Each structure stands twice: as structure tokens, then as C-alpha cells.
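User: Fold both of these, please.

Assistant: Here is the first one.
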Amino acid sequence: MTPLPPFHQNEAPQSHPAFLPEEEREMTRRSFMKWMGAGAVLVGVGLPACRRVEKYLVPYNEGPEWSVPGVETAYATCLAMGGSARPVLAACYEGRPVKLLPSLPYPDGPGLPATAQASILDLYDPGRSKHILFHGKPASGDEFRGAFSSWSRNLRDGGSIGLLLPETDSPLVHSMLEEITRKNPGVRIYHDSPVPAPGSAMQAGLPQEVRFRVRFTRAKRILALDCDFLHENPYGNTRDFIAARSPEGLHYKEENRNRTRLYAAEGRVSLTGAHADHRLPVSPARLAIFTEELFRYIAGRKFSSRFPQPAPEAPASLTERELAWLRRCGDDLYSHPGESLVLLGEDHPELSGCVWKLNRLLGAIGTCIQLLKAPASLPHGTLEDFIRDIRQKKTDIVFLLDSGNPVLDSAHGPTLAEALNGTESIHLGMYEDETSRACRWHLPAAHPLEAWGVERDRRGRFCYRQPVILPLYGGISPEEVLSGLLSTKGQLITADNSPTHLSPVYHRARKCFERAVNPENKTAAWTEALQRGYSEETAYPPLSPQEESGFGAITPDASVTDARTHADAPGSGLLELQFCPDYTIGDGRWKRNAWMQECPDPVTGVSWAASAQVSPATFRRLGGTGSEPMRCTITASAGRMEVILCPIPGVAENLVVLPLGYGGMNHVAEGQWNSNGYELRTQVNQANGCGIPPDQVVLHGLPERTEAIQGPVVQPSPFTAGGSAAAALFTPPGADTVYQWKMAIDTSRCIGCNACMIACRAENNIPVVGRDQMAKGRALDWIRIDRYFTEEGALTAIPVACQQCGKAPCESVCPVNATVHTTEGLNAMVYARCWGTRYCATNCPYRARRFNFFDYAKASEEATRLQRNPNVTVRSRGVMEKCTYCVQMVERAKIRHKSRLMKEHPGQPSTTIRVTEKDLLLPDGEAQTACQLACPAAAITFGNVLDTSSAVFRAKSLPRHMNLLPSLGTEPGTGYLAPARNPNPAMEEQDLENIH
């Protein structure tokens, strides 16, 4: 990204009218009109903030017959995330993928996580690897073709080859690996991942060929043991959980009398735990003790109705408060047999056996949990096996195919780098990194939107990845490498060098589909599968009740000794460290994505930096003052880690929660090299187990808090104090009598996952401004998420955008009428009129308007030019920006609806078609905003409030609906549904306060 010019914190563009000399600012009406008479001279010279970038469009020479300029074409494809596939729709304009949308027919829930949407930016990233490298220098085509031919010949001749890949359920990759091992039994396969896959801990307690899924519609009591299933849900459909938990159902249509109650026991504050009905801080090292005692208690209820006392040999005991919480939670779970379940986070695989026994005690298996039968995978080794085989010369050639960056993020990085330097090693990756530098060869990898493939989702459905654009930088997919190794000619054929621009992986993907589905009409079935994006026929079959009964069998003398394999809690005075993937950049795969870097962490509120969680009491113990975050340096035996330390209510005492994913080579963000959590994790595990002395943590002050570092707000949310429903709909003079667009946001559902922010950014061409600009309070996001904590760690996330006020205070102060109210109830922006006086921002009580201080779009043109949505203006410098309810999507929905009406009368002249006003009315749900479409939790409802059958009308009619700052009388179009908790009456906090 092109750097922006330096400027002072309080400096503004010198051509801005608000910063002209005094004699020019004091104008009469006459002088104002005289000034305006200068016309083009001032526009071209004196006011560069009002200039527009000139572009020349080159039309098609021969365009596709069905292509309509400005109208998107959506193609079904998929992304592999967290070990499973996610079907998506790629919206393309004139051959350019612009944004990723959720696949609405997909049965495991609509919505799309922020990271999936942001992956579109990686496609156009100019920092991607573009050349085949040999020893760090570009290799000639003949040189690479000769090398690849020798690799393929080595495979056919029985040579020893090692393949390091990430964990995958891809049936296409599995079939190709099986073919390779049949041709050469000496090929060795290895898997590696820097962090466990979501759901892997519970999966560890099942045989390899058995999978599971959670039926959230049947679960009325859920206990999450350090399990953040609302963030990345590998267990089941999140919308089912939301429907079972909402007082009025998913669409606010019925009264839900038997709502789901959520309990959470965890050390950190996760998105799931922060929205639980009851939450208990338990450090990771003591979670095994808690789980064991919960099993003893529920087993005692079931077999002897006597509560067994904690075992005397336990390394640590529960406090009276924790024990009281455990008993009341256990009673509630036990009193709902067949409707209760326990979920386990991926960091605790040693507890999987105990958790499955708990679920058997609660009757969850076969009711809330369904077991599925999956095919067995090929035998494979670990990264340690990979390194050992290289050093022992058991492999002559090794391929690292899209395997991440193990030199940086594994505990064996230096050893791995030394081993790779001593053998014929080939690295395939989208970026040049520490691992590529350690290998002899580096191949640029294709983006998922550039390559064919077949993946499986958690249910086992085949999801089809089809390219929506030819490789921009000559990328190669792992499947193409495997296909080239298997070819008899020993050639690597890709979409780039194929005469028909069709990769050979296409034919392999189609054969994979035909073998699994076996349709009668293969061509028609394949086309339909690509259009839908997945095949329901390939889902894993369920186990029979007899087979299910064999898992987690419980007897009165059942042992729980498997829970004792955990590491002991740190000794007295030590700080316990917990390492978790970062909420914004994951395990590091999104650290080069500027969209994700600029998103604030949904718990700490920090962007463009690694942030850590700690309890307020521990924060003060380490030398922190007040509640403002501080810069923190953690030293270990051979290195250090720098983070922003944030005091978060609800974190377990003496626990520091550190993010993984930062550090290493990164062309997008500077200053993050010393934030490598993987290195610190390795050093701590090798030296002290899981604890460090407090004197190894040093705090430093930060500059004044800005949007880049947002401290926690510990106070009740604006909606917890109670209130009444909003007043009757305000209708200004001249308002349309057919459409009045409004929005309702349910704060019971919103978890602050940033999906709405990324969707808004992709749809509305919102540029990133960078860390320095955010530090000066100049973020451009049209949506921000305010966070309100309680002392116990409960979090209310409130998305705030332009409230579309019926009596908008911004409209009355704009001197050029740039912000106006439409007849359909929208507070619109006319960018061509805006002078950037910022009067509207000053007068907005919701602080929902953003000013474009610099031409950020031009600065990021190289990275985002091809990604921009042609239906939305690209704003240049010096204008005010804000949410407009995605008016372009609303108008497009109207056009499509009228087009469908015309198609219902083929060949009939339009003058003879008779339609009623009801026919012309847009059906509820046809018009959706980008944030609403992307929200995985269905927290945002948008529609025509004049339609009494619409979901937004029902939501706004509920007693818990209210507005932000209602005393101002601005009559906002966006309202909020107050949080609706479902507490256990026997477990209210006041009942536990007297227990120490």
C-alpha cells in the first residue's frame, strides 16, 4: 500500500474551507456567490478535495451475450476454513470477483464469517508471490520444467518423497494421495497445523471414522468448557442455536417458552462465554479439576444421589464459590435429560474422554449429539516425523504444499529450516516467508478463487471449488502439483499454460463427483452441483442407535483418570499463559489482510496490533493503573513478545491470554515482528510449563486512547436499564406511503464478530486507513461495534452506524444540502455536493459519520482497484461518508422484482399487463443490506416497516425494542432489541456473593 503523506495530529488538508484564512472564512451571501462564480478555477486549483479521479473505460471487443454492465453474476464456490469447507457465492462484475456472499440455500446456516469475506482482498494483494524461485532468485521456465520432470520421474521410479500438507478432508486430495501411494508405496505423507482445528478436542475422544454434530434445536441446556463455538462453529448450525435461544424465535414470529440456557466455564473472555447466561472464570490449568468434579457430581446424582467430595490427591481444589456454581449448573443440566450437553474447546483434548462420559450421563448422545460414519483417512505422520525422516535421509525430495509457515509457527522451526536446507525441498505458498526462504524451490500458490477443487464440510457434503478468474500471478494449486507428479509426461499443467485455460484438476474433480454420487445424467448432475455449490447426497450417514450406544458407556464405578493428564497449575506467584489464535488474523493466515488488521478485536477493541487479555486485579498487580490498556513486554529465556495488555473483566486471576498469529515477514503491517506468540509459546513450554514470574512482564504507558486502541467500557449497556417500546413510526411530510426502510438489531444475538464490518467494507468500497491514521481517530468504517462489559465478564455488543434519523440533526446544518432525507426514509449522502465542512459530523450525537481526510482510495488503488464495487461511488478526498442502508442493494432488489413480473407475461406488451400495487410491492426479505446478509447470528433485521407482515415490523413492535439516546427526539430508523438473558433462578449472582 502506498504510504500516506506525513501530517500533524490536528492538521487537516490546507485546501479545506474550514482552514482558510480568517478573511476568507467570514463571507456574506454576496461574497459567497461571487466566490462560487469562480467555478471551475476553484474546483481545479483551490479545492483539490473536490476533484474526481478521471478514468477511461475500455469496452469489450466481444463481450459475453448474457453480460449486463453493472449487474453482478454470482458463481458458487467454496473456501476451506478450519479444516472444513464453507460454500460461498462469488459476485463478479465484468469478470472480476468483487465480494463473497453467503450461500443462502446451504442448510448449515446462512451468514459468512469476516475472515471468509476478507479473503477476496488476498486475491488482489500485490504482495503475493509472483515468480518461481530457486535459492531465492527467479528460475527460468526451462530450468523449472526440467526440475519438475525429474521429481515426477523420481515418483514413478519408486524414489522416497515426502508430502507435508495441512489437515484436510478433501476427497479429491485423498484420492490423489491414494493414487500416489499405490504407484509408489515409499511416499510418506505428513500433516501439520500450528493450532488445533475447531472441534478437534471432542473429536479426539471418538474413533477416526466417527464424526459428530450437535442438534442445537434439541439442546436446552449447554455448558461450554473453554469452547468458543459461536466464533467458529464446527459443531452444528448457529442459526439453530439462535432460534432456540431467542424469546420470539428466529423471525420474531412465536413465543419461545423453553429457551436454551448457556453456561460457560473458561479462563479467557471468549465471544461465546461473554454472551452466556452464566459464566465462571476457570483458568485452563484448573479446567480439568472442574470437569472431573462436575462428572463426579452428576454421576453421584445418577447412581447414588450423593455428592462425592473432591479427591484428596487433586493438585488443586475448587473454591466454595466455584463448587456452588458447579452444583447449580450440574443440577440444571441433570434435570433436563436428553436436552443437555457439554462442549469442549480445542485446547483440551486430554479431557475429551471425560466430556463424552458427561454427555452420556446427560443422555445427549443420540438426541442432542448425532454420531456420523466417515471414511478412514490415509495414515500420516507429524511434523516431528517429517523432520526426522529428512535428517535420516529417508526422503530425497520433500514438498510443502500450502502447509502454512512451520519454520515460524512450529516449536521445531530452527531444526526444520536446517533440515530443509539440506535436501531437495519445494515450497508452495501464496507468499514468500520464512519457510520459503529455507527451501530450495518456491512456487507461487493459487488463491482458492483461482483453482478447482473438492472439499468436505463438517457434515461430509462435497463442496465444489470452481475458479471465478484465471490466476492473476501465475498461481499453482496443490492439486495441480499432485496431478503433475502423477502425469506420465512429468509436466505441470495449470490453467495458465493449458491450451484451453482449463486445469487438469477440473477433470479429476468431476470424476470425484461422479464416483461419489453416480448420477444417471452425469453432465446435467455435474452442472447442477456446480450451480448449487455442494452435494447433499455425499453427507456422512448417521450411526445406528445400536452403534451409538457403544460410545461413552457409563457404570457406577466409572473412572475419570483421563482428566488427570493435564499440566499442573503454575505455582504460587506465577502467571499462567494461555495462547489462542487471534480473533482478527486467526493463526496468522490473515495477518497480511489489511481488512482484518483494521478490524478491532471483538473483546479487547485493539486493531493493527497484538492484544492480550488480563483481569483488572492482575493488571494492577503487574503495575497497571486505571482501566486503560498499556504496552506490555513479556520476556522469556531467549526472546520477548510485545502486546497491548488490556484489563478485561471476567478473565481468571493470574492468567494472561496471548494471541497467536503475529510476527514474521509481513508487507502489510509494520512493527509486529516482536509479537510472535509462537516463539514465546515454544520457549515457555520448554522452560516453565505454563507459568512465568510476574517480573518478566513490564508495562509501559500508551499515548492518548484512540480508535486503534479502545479500552473496555465497564458499565451496563444502554438497554439493560429497561424501557418501553419505541414510539409510533415518525412519518415526515412527503414520505412515501409504500416503502419506509428501517432496521432492528438484536443485541441478544450480536457477538461482535466483525462480519458486518467486513461486508460493509466490501460492498461500499471503504478503504483502509492504516494504523497511524486510526491512531489519530480517522477510521473510515461505516459501522463500529461498541462493547459494554459487566464486572463478571458479560458483554453486550452494539453495532452503531448512521441511525437514519427521521429528524436528523445533520441535515439542518449542511450548507450545501449534501445530506438529505429521501421519501423512503433514508438519510442519503450526495457526495458530489459535499464540501467537507464536517458540520454534520459535529451535529451527529451518534458519532456515525466519517471524514475522508486523505485520498485513501487512491493510496490503496493497487491492492483494491479490481475489487471495487462498480455500483458504489469511490469517494475521493474531502467528503463525509456514512451508512445509507445499502441503497444500491435496495434498488437492485426492486429492479429484479419488476423483471420477474415481466417474465411472468412472456411476449405480452407491457401496456396490456395488469398488475396491482400489491404485486409491485417488494416481498419481505428481498431487499437486504450487506451487513444483514453477512451476519451469522441473524442479529440484523431490515425491511419495509409499512409492511405489517415484515420481520422488521414484528421486531420493532416488541416490548424490548428501543432506540439509542431516545431523549434527543431524533426518531432514528435503526432500533435495538435489548438483551434477553435466560438466567437460572437458583444461580443468580446475588445468591453466590456470600459464598467465598
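And the second sequence with its predicted structure:
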Amino acid sequence: MNHCTLLSAAVGTLALVVPVAAQTMDPDFAKSVQEWTTRPEFSSPLVDHLPTSGTIPSPKQILGDHIGVPNKLHSHGQIVDYFRKLATAAPDRVRVLDLGTSNEGRPNIVVMISSAANMARLDRYKANLALLSDPRRTDPEAAKRIIADTKPIYHLTAGLHSSETGPPEMTMELAYRLLTEDSPLIQKIRDNLIVAISPVLEADGRDRYVDWYHQSLIDETNDLDKPGGPPYWGKYIYHDNNRDMNYSDPSARQLLNYYLEWHPPVMHELHESVPFLYTYSGQAPQNPDLDPILYGELPFYSNFEMSQLTKYGMPGVWTHGFVDAWSPGYVGFMASNHNGMLRMYETFGNGGATTMLRHVDNGVDQGSARGGNQLQRDWFRPNPAYRNVMWSMRNNTNYMQTGVLTALQLASNFPAVILENYYQKNANGVKVGRTRAPHAYVIPAGQADQSRVKFVVDQLKLQGIEVGRATGAIKVKEGAYPAGSLVVKLDQPYGRLAKTLLKVQDNFPNENLMTYDDAAWTMGLMTGTKVVEIADKSVLEVPTTPVDTMELAGNIGSAGAGGFVVLDNGAVNLAVLRYRLKDVNIRVAEKPFKVGATHVPAGSYIVPASAADVLRPAVQQLGLTAIAAPATIAVSTHEIPVPRTAVYSSWGATEKVGWVRYAFDQYETPYDLIYKEQVRGGGLRAKYDVIVLPHQGRAPNDIVFDIPVKGKPLPYKTNARFPTLGAYGQSDDIRGGMGLEGLAELRKFVEEGGTLITTGNASAVPASFGLVDGIGVSSPGGGFYAPGPIVKAKLLQPASPIFYGYTEDTMPVRWATNVLFQMRPADRQQVLMEFPGGQSSVISGFMKGAEEVRNRPAIINVARGQGRVLMFATTPIWRWQTLGEYRMLYNAMLNWKSLGGATGQSPRRPEPDVSLDATPEQDNGLKSTRRPAPTAF
């Protein structure tokens, strides 16, 4: 029997999906679904019916309508309540797990559904899956016995992106169908799988978006003129909650904890975007450190789904051409990262429940779009979508639910294969760590800033990666490292994940391929932590003790005649110390000096002895070191008063600002979040010393003019009917930006003595709108492509306060923007840092056209009136990843009064006999950015 015959026999014929005639179906459901489905081919025999039940409440019985009803979305509370009612009605077949709560206190749940027999053995299956996840505890013969005694968990996630409104609705009907329908297809799913559902992964955003939809979007029926969504979903990071590589969001951390406890072999994310249904196949570029088995599994599922839905007559089902398998940072990628399998759909959605005209061909050339022209037939798109279509929520539900049931159909026919592959991928992970270099990563002991070492260790531990502490000195071919160094051995089930996170991304397979997200994420480079890759196999024999937690422990002795000196070890925690001691007069040393045999770096704090009671616990908790200060300090110092700080956000692009806010909140940073209303209102200098304008939007005009003033007003204010609106800021109408009026107020703020700090794309605003003179902005040529590589930056003025805590003249930074600054050589004294450029300066990831950035400014410091504008071409705070760059922004804020010195410019390295008009020095990129132990960035 050939493979096709075997597959056909396993999954059955169309008759398998048709419900048995004896079961009573709901005629109102059939009538409603037919009415709400805009074309007959937009449904399937899997979802055009729904059984009645005398014991299980249907969605209509609880919510008042069938799923897919036009113009109505259900809140997070209603959705959770419905699943809890299912658990009450069928406790033998439904279990609800409470994982924790969101930022705003809403519950995060997982719902498990299967047959009564399976649910009675659920805890046994959980234990068995844990055994299969670690082949060091389970040999192949034991694995065979366990697999024969286990049902796999197939986990579905919905509602991660709040504007993708259909998946949470669909999961309610899916759950009801799985509990009540007696068709052979559904019976087999119940018998052979545990179906787990996360109905809403972004609980706060779901409620906020539902309120916004009912206030501002419900009457929108044409996608070409439709306003966008609310300014916020959750508290911070909007759509980037699916780029939260280090799990900053509590709901993401809770899901990861659940994954590591329950080990579902398959996680299937339900998203909305492209027509009509895209099913993920793991296309190139692929992370080669993931198991090759995965890249066989993914198209096995996606091709089956594509063929089945096409068989049902449903157009626009395709695969392969949209999302790649390079970045490990998507939330659901936790499955593939841990030897399971991430699956994903993108289903066409309207951003609400309104039936509307959708333009698949919107007049924009789609030839270069991801996935190509949606109207064009291809091998991965055998039956393309229609050019224009009336699309409804019920269409969305039909497609998504048909796809999910088809995926479950396939999985239910191969439960043992799912478990065999899962076990084998874990076993392969251990084997690769033992047999192929590298075999480990070492984090040397003695690094100056232990807070960043702790961050790396905490992230590895959070993801289930084992970390050991060497009990003695380590001697391997790569070097010698002291006792207490941390060792991440790769002969563990998640060793390949450790390698993925810690290695340099120098193996992108083809620079002509685009990647869906960043090309680089090397944790040591991004955090400024020394991490050494070890190819010497003897490292696997190094004795270690497990590291369960890593705690910071600072050191502080008695005060001296001059109080205390808190040594600058490069940590952002030094800024936290300043905020905790906000009422204490602190000075900072502008140059290094010695106290006895102790080297005191520039940037160190001089704190009066009278602050000992508050200083002592803070130093100890923050992992800092304070020594006795002599009566006289021989180097110049300046005060660092805590600045009155504001962070500016446009209403239409809050996401990247959200990462800055998150970091500020983690580091106890006082700030006001301001919008166009506050800027236009003026009087900024009376309120603030520093205004931070972070990277946001795509171009300067997006930041200045923001949401176009067209159509109806879009209020974002708390009210009794829509109580979630108005969180994190309020506006009578979010359209329009600060405009020229706001720019004038920012100019006035600077001229009156304020410091304006811009980052990334926002740094084009001062140059484009006349807040600074003599600086041009350009974009790289059409062949340039740099998806977030880590590149070398060169400090031209290393004595500047911006670089306190940095001990080398070059450093790795994440390439953040396509804004290129142009300056006259005579103005070069304003450049604090530049990009050497060239291919040799790309440290991790890749950059096409790297010659275009050669010697371009990376940080510019411009005096204006009594104040200044400090422009970062980088984004010092990029997601919860670039901790090695965070300190530059904190240095800028805390030293805002001392960024220019008496001359109006930052202190700079002497360049004797070099005229201001001389050609800038070029760095060929060959100088290493890695530091010898034990120091760190």
C-alpha cells in the first residue's frame, strides 16, 4: 500500500465528516449560518450544522446568538464564562486551568476537552508527556510503552492580537461541537486527542478592542476607508506581544509555564490577516538548529488542510508563501523551540463582526508582497482568493473552524506518530549536544554587572534550559574560566534552544530571502554579557551544580570622610539607585580615579554619608558596590538631579513606545506619558527637563501628523458604556498629531533649556522639521535590507556622559532604522558615535548594502538655545532584549544638564593635527567587540 493510499485509508472519506442522521441538528443554526455566509462556497460540510443538546449549553443559549452573528463581539468575561459553564455541564469531559491573570487582572485560562475516558487519565498523560520530553529519563523501549498509553495534547491559541477578533468567537462553537457532535470525525478526535484551547491570550486587549469596535467601527462597511483600532490593546506592547522573545508579558510567561508543565506536542496559533486561509508550512529561511523532523511535519499538515478545504470547494486556501521559520521569538514558537511543533493560521478577518466589502486587489502591486499576488495561482495556492468579496464574521468562522477540524482529523489519525516524533526530537536534541560542536556556552564568573548576567540566566531558566555553576576552574581549548562560571551544556533536551538564543546568527541561508522578523537576537551581544561558545567536548565533563535561581548581592562598607563611592559597573541598576535616592544630592565622577587600590570608573556616584540608611539596602538589592569615599576627590564631578521626564507617544503608533514604558517601569523610572494634547498645550519647559521621543511610526510625518483627520472623530475616553477606553491616556479625538503647532512647542522647550532625546525613526523629526540645523536625512538605496542585525558602533567621544559604564571604544548595537544622517565634516564634533559600516561590521544577522552606512552618525548631540537635542539613530530600548544599550538612554536622561560641558560640546578624544574638515577615520570592522573576561559591556 503506497503512502497516498495509507493516508486516504487513515483519514477516511467525506462520509467520515458527515454527522450521523440520528442526531438532532439545530435548524435555526443552519438557517442563520446560511444567511450570514456570503457565498455558499465559503462554508463546508464540517460546520454547516450544529447538534442540539439537553445537557451542554450552546453559545446561543448563553450568549443570545449563534457564533458569527453580524455586528456583535463578545467580551473576554463572556467568553471565559461560557467555557466555565461548559466545564460545569460536563465536568467529566472539560477541565479549565487557571494560569494567572493579565496586567489588568483578567484571568488567563486553558480549557481541555476530550472523551470522559481520556479526561479521567489526564494527569497520567501529563506525567507521560513529561517523560517523553526528557530521553535521559526515558529510553526508547520505555518510550514505546509510554506512547501506547498516552494521548497527545493539541493546543489551540486565540486572541493574541486583539484586532483579530474571530478566533475567540470560533473557539466557543468549536468546543461545543467537540462535546456534542457524534460524527465519526468528532468521535475520533475525542478518542485520540486532548484538545486544549487558550480562548483569549490578550485578555485586556480583547475587552478594549470590543469596546472600541462597538464605539467606532461597527458601522464601517468598506475596508478602504475603515479607521484603525484603539491606541492600546494591553498595557504595553500591542502587536509585538507576538515578538515578546523574553516573555515580558505575564500572560505569555504563564503560557510558557503551562507549556513546560504539560508539554503539548502541538501548538496551533489562530491569527487573522491575509485571504482567505493561510496555513503555515515552515518555509525558508529556516532555523537549522530546529530538528529536521519539524520541517517534514509542518507541510504534512498544511498540505492536507489545503487539499481538504479545496475539496470542499473553499477558495483561497494556501500555504508556504507567508511566514518563515527563522526567528524563535513568536509566542507559539515555544512549541518548536521545545521540540514540539508550532502550527499557525492566518484567516481573512474584518477587525470586527461587520460584514463589509473587502478588496483583495486594493490597487497596490502585489508582485513583491509576502506570498505574492493573492489572485495568482501557484503551486502553494491552487485555488486563489477572489479579487473583491463581501466578507463576514461567519465566513471567518467557517474557514477557521473547518481548518482546525481538518487539522484535528489528521492528528487524531496519527496520535502515536505525533508522540513518536516528539520523543525523537527530544532525543535528537540530547544527541546533537553530545556529538556536534558547540557543546556548551560558558558565562565567565567575575563580570562587572551581575544584573545582566542574571537577566540571561533568568531567561534561560524561564524557558526550561538547564544552567550549571562550575565547582572548579574550567580549562578548555577556548580558554580558562574561574570557578563559579556558569555553564550551559547542550546535551540536554532544550540544548538546541540554548544554542539558538546564545549563538551568533552568522548562518542566514540566503540574503535574498526576507525574514518575517529580526535576523539576529544573540543574547550575549544584546545584553552586553560575555558568553563564550565552547567547541571542546571536554566541557561536558566539567562538574557543575544546578542553578535554580540567581540572586543579586551588592557590597557596601562604612562611609568615608567623603561619604560613599558607588562604582559604575555598567548596570542600569545604577540609574535605579538614583531614582530610589531621589531626594539625595548625588554627584557623578567625570573621569576615572583610584581610591587606594580600587579603580573607580567615570560615571561612579559620590553619595553623602547621611544617605547611608537608604543607600545600604538599595546597593545590596541592586547588586552594586559602594566603598568609602575620601574627603577629597581629585577629578571633576557634576550633579545628577532626577530629571522631570516625559515620554511622547503618537496615538496611532504606541507599540514601540510601549517597550520604552515597560523598561522604564521595570527600572523604577518616573515619567509622564504625553500625547499631542499635552504638547500642543505648551508650557513644556515648566513641567519637564527631558522629553523622550522614542522610535515610532514609519516616517517623520507619521509622528508629527499621525492619524489622518478624515471621517468621523475617534474619541478615546473612559465612559460608562465603554469602560476600558481611556486607559494610559485620553483624547477627545485621536486623529491628527502634534502638527506644526506641537513642533513649535518642542522647539521652545529645547530653546528654554530642555533636553529632547529622540531614538530610531523619531530621530528624523528634528532634522526633517528644522529643530536642528545642518543635519540631513536620507534613506539607503533600494537594495538595502537590514532586518534587525547586530552591528558594530564606534564611540568617537568615549568620555561623554552618554558612555558612562561602557569600557571599550566599540560596542554591538541593534540596527534599528533606515534613517541615515548626513553632516558636514566641520560639524563632526557633534557626533558621539558612528557606524563603521561595511560587511565586516555586521556582528550577527545580515545587512545587504552595508557599505551605505559606512561612517554614518549613530548618536548626534546638538546644542540649541539653552538646551539640546540628542538624536540616536539606534533604538537603545528595543523590546525587552537590548539591555546592553539601555544604559546609554539612562545616561542621557540623568546627565541631561551635563551633556555639553563648558564648550557646548561633549568631552571628546583628542585628535591632534586633524582639521575639522578632514575625512573621517574609517574602522574596517575587524576589531573585536567581545571582551576578555572578567569585564562586561
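The mean pLDDT is 93.
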